[in-house]
Amino acid sequence: MNIFKRLLRIGQAEIHAAVEKMEDPIKMTEQGLRELQKDLAAATEAYAKVKALAIRTENEQAQCQKESMNYAEKAILIMQKAQAGQVDLVKAEELAREALSLRRKFYTESEELGAQVLNLQQSSREMLRNTEILKENMEKWEKELRTLKARAKVSKATEQVNKQLSQLDNNGTVAMLERMKAKVEDQEALAQAYGDIARGKNSLKDELNDLLKDDSFSIEKDLQAIKEKLGITDNP
């Protein structure tokens, strides 16, 4: 049926051609699913109508069967009245023929309606089966679409990051960082050298101070040596 022809659209050549032309496949799939959703609603409505027609036809068939049986009973009843002398036989036969004619008419209509009921029931079962298949496929496709949309977002973000990373060297960022690192290391080495020089000066100063510091014990010893050389004795 035409309702289900769009099931093949995703696999048709024009879709592949559109994708090759850089059209957005996700948007196209979303549009396709929206159209299929409309088709599903139309298919469901059509199924309901066929189902209702089958029920109505089945009721009409039952009514025809009932009418056929009623006229058969009337034909018998008329002939029984003729047998009992209540109705003229000729008149009774005429009425019985009319009743039997109507009985056959309703019986034929009942048979035709029965065949229609079978066809309508078969059609409704097929429509229901196709509608259920379409519904299941749509649910699966919608789930896959959600997954693909999430993957597309991740891949787009990853592509952007990788693109930026791939352009780092082209922009001289890595080289600039290396030069900055070398400059900082040079500055650190120079600062260390100045520190070593400053510490060296402090050591020499400390050594000189140690040599020139006031040692009272050494002075007294030198004074005593001078006094002994000169023969000076300390007063008792």
TrEMBL record:
Keywords: Coiled coil. Residues 26-53, 124-158 form a coiled coil. InterPro entries: PspA_VIPP1. It comes from the Bacteria. Belongs to the PspA/Vipp/IM30 family. This is Phage shock protein A (PspA) family protein.
